Amino acid sequence: MILIAGATGKLGGLIAQQLSRQGEPVRVLVRADPAGSFGPTVEVAFGDLKDPSSLREACKGVDAVITTANSTARGGADTIESVDLIGNRNLVDAAVSERVRRFIFISSLGAHPTSTMPLLRAKGETEKHLAESGMVWTSIQPNVYIDLLLMGVVGGPALSGAPVTLVGSGERKHSFVTMSDVAAYTLAALHSPAAENQTLRLGGPEPLSWRDVVAVFEQFLRHAVEVRTVPIGEPVPGMPDFIVQLLTALETYDSPMDMAGMAETYGVKGTSLREFLSSTLPVQHVA
Ligand SMILES: NC(=O)c1ccc[n+]([C@@H]2O[C@H](COP(=O)([O-])OP(=O)(O)OC[C@H]3O[C@@H](n4cnc5c(N)ncnc54)[C@H](OP(=O)(O)O)[C@@H]3O)[C@@H](O)[C@H]2O)c1
Asked: Concatenated DSSP letters for 110-141?
C-alpha cells in the first residue's frame, strides 16, 4: 500500500492517478471528502499534517509514503511552520511508528536547513529529519515548474496578448521542469535501488533564460511578445509579492542541469518547453 499526502494538489494528483493506473494499491491522505474523484480503487484516509494521530492511522499497513503536501497555496492555519516544518516532521514520525519502509519527500532545489528562505529551510529540515529516520528515503528536489511559474509569468500574458513583465535582465539560465517529469521520476524512484537514500535534483532537458522562454512562445504564437523589465528591488504592479521574490531570487544565480545520466538511470525522457506547449496549448496556438 502506498500512502500519498498532497493528492488533492496538482503533483500529488498526477502521482496518485498514475500509480493507481499501474495497478498499485493507493491510499490518499485527504482533509475533505474527495467525493469519488480518485476512483473506486483508491482508498481514502482522512487526516491533516497538523494532527499526528490522524497520520498514524493513515500510515497503518503502508509500505511507502510519498508526500507532495505543502502550505504555499493554502493559508489560515496552514503555514510553512505548521505544515512544511512541523507537519512534515509529524508525517515522518508517524511513518516510523507504523514501520513504513520507504518514504519519498518532494522537496525543492536549494532546500537546506540553513537557507535564508523559510520554505527552503523547512524543506531542508524535513530532509535532515527523514535521512535520520531509519526509513529508506528519497528526497526529490525539482527546479522551478514549467506548469506554474513559467506559465504564469510568460504563458498567461503572452496568450492573452498582454506584455510579459520580467524582474531584472531575465538572462539567467534555469532548467525549468514539468510536473509530469517530476511525477515520472518519483514513480521510477519508488522501485529503483539507485534512488534509495538519495537526493534527486530534477530539471528539464534544456536550460532556458526568461528571454529564451519568451522566444519559444513567440515561435508558437507566430507573433512578437512585448517584454517589460522592472529593475530588481522596485515594485511590480499587479504581480503577487511571492512571485516577485521568486523572480528576484532567480536573477541571482543560474541553475542549468545536465539530466542525461538521470534520464538514463530512471528511464525518463525529459519534456522540453516546446513539447510541453505542443501538448497543452489550444490547437490554434500551435505552429
Ligand atoms: N512550484 C514550483 O515551481 C516547485 C518547485 C519545486 C518543488 N515544488 C514542490 O512541489 C510540490 C507539489 O506542489 P503542488 O503545486 O502540487 O502543490 P499544491 O497543488 O499546492 O497541493 C498542496 C497539497 O498539500 C495538501 N496540504 C496542505 N496543507 C496540508 C495539511 N495541513 N494536511 C494535509 N495536507 C495538506 C493540500 O491538501 P488540501 O487540498 O486539503 O489543502 C494539497 O493536496 C510541493 O511540495 C512544492 O513545494 C514546487
From this structure: T--TT-SSHHHHHHHHHHHHHHTSSSEEEEEE
